[in-house]
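Whiteboard transcription, Tuesday session. T.W. wrote the C-alpha cells on the left side:
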C-alpha cells in the first residue's frame, strides 16, 4: 500500500514538473504559480461546488495570476484589479477571444453568436449594430414607454400581494419582468404574464441554458471526449436552443408576412432594427446570425438583471437602515404613487450606490465570460501559453480586503463620494467585464435594474414570511450567481 502511495506521489510530482517544463517558453520566462496538478485530472477537484470561492482561496496562497490545469486545459485565474486591467485593457488584443464551452457548440452557436465568435469583421459588424441600433441612448429612450408598461405589471403584481398578504418571490417576479422588458425591447410584445404557466417555462429555458453553460463539463476538461458528450450537456442545450429558435422563427415569419401583406405598422423594436440591417447591409449578416443574436440577448439579458435585483433586495432586507435611506431618497425626488421614470435615475445617487455595492458583493457573472490567449503571451513577467483559458474572478476582486475597507459589509455609502463606476474603467468593479468585449447590453441592464429596484423600494415596506427568522445568503454557482434560497418577502403598501 505504502509503495503504491509513494509511486502515485512520485508520478504526480513528475507529471507536474513535466507539465511546467513542457509549457515553459523562452529564456527567463516562467509560467504563473499555482497548485500542483494531479496527473490526468489536474486541479479539477480543487474547484468544488463554488469555484469562485475556491479560486479566491487558492489565489490567497498562489497570488493574483495563478495557473491551474483543469483536465487537459491550462487555465489562468486573475484575481486583482491590476492584473484584470492588464488582461482587459493593456493586453486586450491578446486576450479578446473567448474560450468556448462545449455547451455553446449547440446549433453552431459558437460560430454565429456575437458573445462567442472570435473578434473579426463579422463580430465588429454585429457589435456596431448593437451599439448604434439597439443600445444607443436615443434608441433606448424611444423604447422607454414600452418598458414602463412592463414595470406597471410588476407594481400591479406587488399590489395584489399587498392586498392578499401573500409573499412576493422577488427573483421570480424580477425575472418575469426582465423577460417582459427584454421581450418588449426585442419584439414589442409580452413574453409572459406574471404568475402564468408560460412565464415559468421561459424562466426554465433561460435558467437551464445558464446552468448548462456554467456546469463543469468533462468535454471541456478533456476535449477528446467531445464526440461522446458524456454528461449530455451539449444534447440538452441543443434542445433548449431549438425551443427558442422555434419561437423566433414564428415571430420573424409573422413580421415578414405582415410586411409583405402591406401592413404599415411602425415597429420601434430591436427585431425591426435587425431586419432592416439584414435587408440593407452588404456585410453578409444572415437570418441565422439574427436568430443567434436574439438568443444571445434573450439569454444574457434576463437572468443577469433579475438576479442582481434579487441580491440588491436581499441586502436591503438585511440592512433596514439602507432600505429607509433609499426610500427617503426616492420620496424626495418623487411623490407617493408617482412611478419612477428612467430619466429619474440620474437624480438618485443613493440608489445607484446600492446597485454598485450589490455588483461588488454579488457580481452576477462571478468569473466573467472566459477569454482565451490567442498566442503564447508575455504577461506581467510570466508566459501565458497559447489557448490557455483566462478567467477573471470578479467575485474575489470585489471582496479583496486590500482593495476595499470593510470588504464583507454592505455599505453603499462607500460609493457616494468616489468616482467609481462599473463601465469598465475601474478595474476593482467589473461586473460587465471590460475592453472591446465589454457587455454590449450594459446600457439596457443599467436602466432595467435601477427601475425595477426603485419600483420595489419606493412605496412598500417589506418583511420576511412568517416563521422565517433570517434571509439566506447561500450562493448557487452557474455562469450567473443565483441565490440558493429564493428571497420571499411580504409587501405592505406605505
Ligand atoms: C446585470 C446584467 C448583466 C451583467 C452583469 C452582464 C455581464 C456581462 C459580462 C461579464 C460579459 C463579458 C464581458 C467581457 O468579456 O469582458 C457580458 C457580455 C455580453 N453581454 Fe452582458 N451582462 C448583463 C446584461 C446584459 C444584457 C441586458 C444584454 C443584452 C440585452 C447583454 C448582452 C451581452 C452580450 C451580447 C455579450 C457579449 C459581448 C461580446 O462578447 O462581444 N448583457 N455581459
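and on the right, the sequence the group agreed on:
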Amino acid at each position: 500500500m505504502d509503495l503504491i502511495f509513494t509511486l502515485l506521489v512520485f508520478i504526480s510530482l513528475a507529471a507536474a514538473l513535466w507539465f511546467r517544463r513542457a509549457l515553459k517558453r523562452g529564456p527567463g520566462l516562467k509560467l504563473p504559480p499555482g497548485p500542483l496538478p494531479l496527473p490526468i485530472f489536474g486541479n479539477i477537484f480543487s474547484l468544488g461546488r463554488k469555484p469562485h470561492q475556491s479560486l479566491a482561496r487558492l489565489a490567497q496562497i498562489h497570488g493574483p495570476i495563478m495557473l491551474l490545469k483543469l483536465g487537459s486545459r491550462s487555465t489562468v485565474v486573475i484575481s486583482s484589479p491590476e492584473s484584470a486591467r492588464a488582461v482587459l485593457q493593456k493586453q486586450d488584443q491578446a486576450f479578446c477571444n473567448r474560450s468556448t464551452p462545449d455547451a455553446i457548440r449547440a446549433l453552431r452557436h459558437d460560430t454565429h453568436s456575437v458573445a462567442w465568435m472570435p473578434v473579426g469583421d463579422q463580430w465588429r459588424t454585429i457589435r456596431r449594430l448593437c451599439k448604434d441600433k439597439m443600445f444607443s441612448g436615443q434608441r433606448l429612450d424611444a423604447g422607454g414607454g414600452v418598458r414602463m408598461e412592463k414595470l406597471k405589471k410588476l407594481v400591479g403584481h406587488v399590489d395584489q400581494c399587498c392586498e392578499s398578504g401573500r409573499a412576493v418571490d422577488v427573483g421570480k417576479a424580477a425575472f418575469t419582468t426582465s423577460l417582459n422588458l427584454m421581450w418588449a425591447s426585442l419584439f414589442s410584445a409580452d413574453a409572459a404574464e406574471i404568475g402564468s404557466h408560460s412565464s415559468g417555462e421561459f424562466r426554465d429555458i433561460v435558467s437551464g441554458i445558464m446552468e448548462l453553460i456554467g456546469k463543469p463539463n468533462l468535454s471541456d476538461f478533456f476535449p477528446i471526449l467531445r464526440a461522446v458528450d458524456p454528461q449530455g450537456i451539449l444534447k440538452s442545450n441543443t434542445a433548449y436552443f431549438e425551443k427558442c429558435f422555434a419561437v423566433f422563427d414564428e415571430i420573424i415569419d409573422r413580421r415578414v408576412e405582415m410586411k409583405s401583406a402591406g401592413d404599415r405598422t411602425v415597429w420601434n423594436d430591436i427585431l425591426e432594427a435587425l431586419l432592416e440591417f439584414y435587408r440593407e447591409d452588404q456585410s453578409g449578416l444572415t437570418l441565422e446570425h439574427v436568430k443567434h443574436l436574439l438568443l444571445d440577448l434573450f439569454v444574457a439579458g434576463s437572468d443577469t438583471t433579475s438576479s442582481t435585483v434579487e441580491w440588491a433586495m436581499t441586502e436591503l432586507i438585511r440592512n433596514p437602515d439602507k432600505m429607509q435611506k433609499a426610500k427617503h431618497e426616492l420620496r424626495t425626488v418623487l411623490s407617493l404613487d408617482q412611478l419612477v421614470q428612467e430619466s429619474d435615475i440620474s437624480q438618485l445617487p443613493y440608489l445607484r450606490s446600492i446597485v454598485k455595492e450589490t455588483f461588488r458583493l454579488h457580481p452576477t457573472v462571478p468569473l466573467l465570460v472566459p477569454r482565451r490567449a490567442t498566442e503564447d503571451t508575455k504577461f506581467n513577467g510570466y508566459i501565458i501559453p497559447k489557448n490557455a483559458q483566462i478567467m477573471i474572478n470578479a467575485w474575489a476582486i470585489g471582496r479583496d480586503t486590500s482593495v476595499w475597507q470593510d470588504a464583507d459589509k454592505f455599505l453603499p455609502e462607500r460609493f457616494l463620494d468616489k468616482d467609481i463606476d462599473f463601465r469598465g474603467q475601474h478595474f476593482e468593479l467589473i461586473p460587465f467585464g471590460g475592453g472591446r468585449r465589454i457587455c454590449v447590453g450594459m446600457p439596457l441592464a443599467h436602466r432595467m435594474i435601477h427601475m425595477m429596484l426603485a419600483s420595489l423600494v419606493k412605496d412598500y415596506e417589506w418583511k420576511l414570511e412568517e416563521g422565517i427568522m433570517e434571509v439566506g445568503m447561500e450562493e448557487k454557482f452557474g455562469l450567473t450567481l443565483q441565490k440558493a434560497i429564493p428571497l420571499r418577502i411580504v409587501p405592505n403598501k406605505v
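Someone added at the bottom: The first strand starts at residue 65 and ends at 70.
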